[in-house]
Amino acid sequence: MKSPRPPMGLIAGNRELPLMVAAKARQLGRPLVAVGIEGETDLALADLVDGFIMVKLGQFRAMLDFFKVAGVKDLVMIGGIDRETIIFNYDPDEIFVEVMETLDDFHTDKILRALTERLEADGLKLWPVTELLPELLTPPGLLTRAAPDESLKADLKVAWRMAKELGRLDVGQVVVVSDRITLAVEAAEGTDAAVRRGAALAEKPVAVAKVVKPTQDWRLDPPVIGPETIRVMAEARVGALVVDAAHILIINREETIRLADEAGLAIVAWTDQTMP
Known about the structure:
The protein has helices spanning about 15-30, 60-70, 85-90, 95-100, 110-120, 150-170, 190-200, 225-235, 255-265, and strands at about 10, 30-35, 50-55, 75-80, 125, 140, 175-180, 180-185, 205-210, 225, 240-245, 250, 265-270. The chain is α/β, with parallel strands linked by helices. The termini are far apart.
């Protein structure tokens, strides 16, 4: 008799993407066990998976032991971690401390790559979430009814170039521009705060770019937009948003585009080759 398929593992952060992974795994008949992060992961996830534990951020050994007992070999990691958790609910064990001590700075990509190498040293293979949810990838072209006018299109080009450079430096992935002047670049505060900060400096609708880093590892922290992104941008009077085609994930695409249409916010998806 064939042995049952081993479960896939999920390291789950906040918001709805971990729930979407669990729902898709169930639809595909793929067993799934998950590790949640205290203060971040939606507890509803526990009812959608075949095994679940909650740990504090930094409790690496507990996570490894859980996956080992479950027989996990393949993993996905998705969902954000808020800054408050990193500061106030962080409890690093000896493995986590050992990994962090190998780093000369604490940029997100560098931390995640080092932790991934440690996971792989324990025989766990990390996969991009798009292996389960390829339908979330942004299609190319104009996604909304409204298209950017020539002024906004010029601002989008500046924002795109600046965001690519920002990503190369592993600082952030979002830039806000008006009248071809950069008003804000994303750092540790995240997309929403950067958009609000930049838009507050302008007297008219601004352009925003959200792009992948040139060295993006698709298994780690993929850029995401969704309904909440658009609500923030509409409130901040963003006129147009450009994202990386086939690289940015869109959560709840229909609702995201509907909200943008209601706000008159243009969303376009470019590549380096198709940027006008």
